[in-house]
């Protein structure tokens, strides 16, 4: 029932001209959700709350800024969709102006009565969102953020002036064909959620050349080390942060299979 409703919604959004999520750079943003909704920037989907600016859809989540933290002895939860909790709040008139839209790993939360601010807090996913969402879900704002970073990093071969309109689709099909296995170190990603750490690399650096002989399936760590051009991406803090996250998560396996770069990489973590 819910899945059916969602497919209808997707169809509707497409008809209304809401853009699909496009590959793009990634910036951390925190804004008032109601203001954004009034401006017509917000669309609620199954896998996130999308904020569309200049035809670029940014995926994020929402959370209540002012909250009785001490009373509940916990921080507010974050929501990725119009779950039961949100729908209830909307019908009681307890939703508007209360929420922040964000795509960050950490947020600020205000103690409702004293107005003290807790800084850089990581939130957990709302139970109803977890129940109602379809597919893989991120359980914390940190996981959500790391997923966004990793998604943005999937396109490190693609410069802005050379972007095939369907690069995301090609990459997905190719990586699927290659069984999410790295050509260089043979790492295999089995966790669906971590598929974003297996990349499609263009040997000739031309993202428009998608002939099979030009493509390689490489894990994030091997991909960054293919040449100086790729290594230079490590100067981008968000790329570095996201690669660190991947390496930390997979370090034992990478060491075990003898990944050629892991030892040197670990010494500078
Ligand atoms: Zn929720
Ligand atoms: Zn590899
Ligand atoms: Zn590449």
UniProtKB/TrEMBL annotation:
<protein>
    <recommendedName>
        <fullName>HNH nuclease domain-containing protein</fullName>
    </recommendedName>
</protein>
<feature type="domain" description="HNH nuclease">
    <location>
        <begin position="172"/>
        <end position="224"/>
    </location>
</feature>
<dbReference type="InterPro" id="IPR003615">
    <property type="entry name" value="HNH_nuc"/>
</dbReference>
